[in-house]
User: Fold this.
Amino acid sequence: MPLVDRPSLDKARYEMEVCNACRYCEGYCAVFPAMMRRREFTDGDLNYLANLCHGCKACFHACQYAPPHQFGINVPQTLASLRAETYAQYAWPRPLAVLYRKNGVTVAVVVALGIALVLGGLAFLKPEALTTGQGGEGAFYRVIPWRVMAGAAGLSLLWSMLALTMGGIRFWRDTGGGLAKGGAAAQAIHSVLTLRYLGGGHDGQDGCNDVGESFSQERRAFHHALFYGFGLCFASTCVAFVYDHFLFRAAPYPLTSAPVILGTAGGAAMMIGAGGMAWLKAVSDPRPEARQVLGGDYALLALLFAAAATGIGLLALRDTDAMPVVLAVHMGVILSLFALLPYSKMVHGLYRGLALLRSAAEAKQEGS
Ligand code: SF4
Ligand code: SF4
Assistant:
């Protein structure tokens, strides 16, 4: 079996050719204008269009050629399948593309291993830390020394950044290469931060067709909660670093301190966002869904929910005897999340961002 299977390419090419003749959905999102700039579709073009699609499903509900029509056009489903195949195609190093074959299982196994590694390592190397009650300033680091915590997190994050950079370079080259001018970057960043294309038709005013034919802004709102919640948790970690290294105050910090306020708000937002997105997937119309990618989607949402929930659990239990175990579980989940950044659906942020950059650059070139 080849490392990377591409069963969706031919179907995507056929559907883009039909859409390019029809063009009824041209105002719905960035995919259709990008499609209309092409007469033929290379594999790289299709990979680009697949990652430009946000899966709002507006074009499925608008399509007169959707099943049961004999043309069987189902753009959201086809591009979602192809999108998942691109994650494997651009994975670095290439042998790790196998991690995308059953991505839900991969995510579950890595998280279980991460938790077992931290808990087991602690039980083996420092068993008294798991059973002795801890409290007061520096309590976390008496369980897991700061150097071990920062070293493990830093190493897994560095590896993931390298893998993501290599994947991003491969994607960019394969989809056309070249340079994007400054204005295009600003437009792409705006589209990412506002999730403009989760708006469906009419330039973001209506929302997605997640549950059925009716429009809703729920998916956009839940995705914003997850995205910005993640950002707040990252800000909390950065502020805690400043507290530790420049103000010489070791965690855990008071409830009214900036790291705790930022982390609590971020964690709560992430739980709402991840839970809400999982709920929307569960109740959504299955017809435009790509069933084979759902396992990976749910697994990532569960991982993000667990990262936030164990962080909030640690805050709630930090002055109890349960703190060392909860800290070890939280650490195992966070390390798994870092390690899985390039080998889970988390990569969609990178490739979609680059696809939006290419789309903005093409639109500017067309207008100039
Ligand atoms: S999705 Fe259907 S209606 Fe929309 S452009 Fe394609 S063929 Fe036409
Ligand atoms: S599902 Fe939405 S984002 Fe994807 S091609 Fe159709 S209209 Fe565009």
